[in-house]
Design goal:
By secondary structure, the protein is α/β, with parallel strands linked by helices. Helices cover about 35% and strands about 25% of the residues. Strands 12-11-10-9-13-14-15 form a 7-stranded mixed β-sheet, sandwiched between helices. A 4-stranded antiparallel β-sheet has the order 2-3-1-4, covered by helices on one side. A 4-stranded antiparallel β-sheet has the order 6-7-5-8, with helices on one face. The radius of gyration is 28 Å and the shape is elongated.
C-alpha cells in the first residue's frame, strides 16, 4: 500500500464519545478472547482498551469499545450488540455484563510508582493495610499483579496520584508494623534501565564472615569475635578493627585459602540472582571489606564483571598479619560503586546496591536503589528498601522480574 493509500489513524475517543465496557466472567478455556472480538467485529466497533486476568482458572476479560451508531450498512444498534454478546456468552456458560458510558478511562494522576510487596506469607490483613496506606497518601491503585508465589509471595501495585517519596515514607512504617517487605520505586524506563548491581559479600552474597573462616583455621575465633564486638559497640572504626583482626592471622599457612574457598556458602538464591541479571544484560559486581583471596574466586565462579576487596599480605607462604593496598571500608565501597558505574557506562541513578551492614550505608545511599538485605535496624531505616527473607534472588522482584521469567530463562542455554 502506498503512502497515499494508507488509511488515517483512528482518533482516540473524546470524553463525549459513547463507549461500551464489555465484561466477561467464567471458566477459562482457549478461544474466549478470540470469540468475543469475533462477535464484536460484526458491529464495526473500535477497540479502545483491553484488560484480561486469569486467576485459578477463572477469566475476567474487559473490552472497552465504541458504541454502534446504527449507521453501518447492516443498521446494527447497541441493543443488537448487547443481545449478541449475551447469547454468545451463554453458549459458552460465561457471564456477560455491558455498561454504557462515554470516552476512555480517566487519566492517571501524576506521580507514578511501582510498589513491590514481599510476604512470607502475604496475609489479607497486611494487604488491606497496604492498600489503605496508599489511599491515605492520595494514591490510586491502577493495577495489581503477582510476580512470584515462591519462595515468597511477591505482588506489585502500580500506583498513581502521589509522589514516590511520599508513598515510600508512608509504606515504610506499614512494612515494619506488618512484618512484610515493601519497595517503592519510580515508574518509567529508568526502572528497566538499571544496568549495574553491586553487592556486599559477607552475610549478603555469602552466608559467612570470611575473617571468621580464616580465624577458625588460626585458632583465634574468640579473639576475632571480641574485636568484632568492640567495633559494633563503636569502640573501633572499621579500619582499626580490620587491622586488629588480620593481625591475629599472622603466621597462618596460606594454603588455608583453598580450604576457606571451599567452606564459603553462597546465600540461597545468590547464584540465581547473578545468573538472571547477567541474562538480562545487567553488569554485576561485588565490593567487600573481606579479602580478594575469596572474592577473586567468587568472581570467576559466578562470572562477575567487577570485584574489589582487601588483600591479605602473604610472604614466604604465610600471612604476615597485614593487608596491602587501599582499605575497602565504608567510604571505599561507595567510591568503588562510582568507579564500577563509570567503567560500565551506567549513571549512578541506574545502579542497585545490596548490603547488610553499617559499612554498606554509603554505598546503599549512593546507588539509585539501595537494598538492605537481612540488615540491622539502622541499615534498614537508612536504605531505600529492605528485604528480610533469606533468599537473595527476591531482589529480582524489586526490579519487576517475575518468577516465571526467571524460570523461563533457566530453560535456555547460556
Amino acid at each position: 500500500m502506498s503512502a497515499s493509500q494508507t488509511p488515517p489513524a483512528t482518533a482516540v475517543p473524546g470524553d463525549d464519545v459513547p463507549t461500551l465496557l464489555v465484561k466477561i466472567f467464567g471458566k477459562d478455556r482457549p478461544g474466549i478472547t478470540a470469540g468475543l472480538f469475533d462477535t464484536l467485529a460484526a458491529y464495526s466497533v473500535d477497540v479502545v482498551d483491553i484488560e484480561q486476568v486469569v486467576t485459578r482458572g477463572r477469566i475476567v476479560l474487559c473490552a472497552l469499545v465504541t458504541t454502534p451508531t446504527g449507521s453501518a450498512s447492516n443498521g446494527a444498534t447497541e441493543g443488537d450488540l448487547r443481545a449478541t454478546v449475551h447469547s454468545w456468552a451463554e453458549s459458552l456458560h460465561l457471564q456477560a455484563e455491558i455498561i454504557s458510558g462515554t470516552g476512555d478511562n480517566r487519566p492517571r494522576g501524576t506521580g507514578r510508582s511501582h510498589v513491590t510487596v514481599l510476604g512470607h506469607p502475604l496475609t489479607a490483613e497486611s494487604t488491606s493495610a497496604i492498600a489503605a496506606a496508599i489511599t491515605a497518601t492520595g494514591g490510586n491503585i491502577d493495577r495489581i499483579f503477582r510476580l512470584a508465589k515462591y519462595p515468597v509471595t511477591a505482588v506489585e501495585f502500580n500506583v498513581s496520584g502521589t509522589p514516590t517519596d511520599t508513598l515510600r515514607t508512608a509504606l515504610a512504617t506499614e512494612a515494619s508494623v506488618l512484618g512484610v517487605d515493601i519497595a517503592v520505586v519510580d515508574s518509567g524506563l529508568a526502572r528497566r534501565a538499571q544496568r549495574l548491581v553491586v553487592m556486599d559479600v559477607d552475610s549478603t552474597l555469602i552466608q559467612d564472615e570470611v575473617i571468621e573462616l580464616f580465624a577458625a583455621h588460626a585458632g583465634c575465633e574468640a579473639e576475632v569475635a571480641e574485636v568484632t564486638a568492640a567495633a559494633m559497640r563503636g569502640e573501633l572504626d572499621f579500619e582499626q578493627s580490620l587491622h586488629a583482626r588480620v593481625a591475629l592471622l599472622k603466621g597462618l599457612d596460606a594454603s588455608v585459602v583453598e580450604q576457606v574457598r571451599k567452606e564459603v556458602r553462597l546465600t540461597p538464591g545468590a547464584r540465581t540472582l547473578v545468573r538472571t541479571l547477567k541474562r538480562l544484560g545487567y553488569q554485576v559486581g561485588v565490593v567487600s571489606g573481606g579479602f580478594t583471596q575469596v572474592t577473586d574466586a567468587l568472581k570467576e565462579d559466578l562470572g562477575l564483571d567487577f570485584a574489589s576487596a582487601n588483600t591479605l599480605e602473604i610472604v614466604d607462604g604465610r600471612f604476615t598479619g597485614k593487608v596491602t593496598g587501599d582499605i575497602v571500608d565504608r567510604a571505599g565501597k561507595a567510591r568503588l560503586l562510582r568507579s564500577f558505574a563509570q567503567q560500565a557506562g551506567v549513571p549512578l541513578a541506574q545502579t542497585v546496591a545490596i548490603g547488610d551492614g553499617a559499612n554498606d550505608l554509603d554505598m546503599l545511599n549512593t546507588a539509585g536503589l539501595g537494598v538492605a538485605f537481612n540488615a540491622k535496624p539502622v541499615v534498614r531505616e537508612a536504605a531505600h528498601t529492605a528485604v528480610n527473607v533469606p533468599f537473595l534472588d527476591t531482589v529480582l522482584y524489586l526490579l519487576g522480574v517475575t518468577r516465571e521469567e526467571v524460570e523461563a530463562a533457566d530453560t535456555l542455554a547460556d
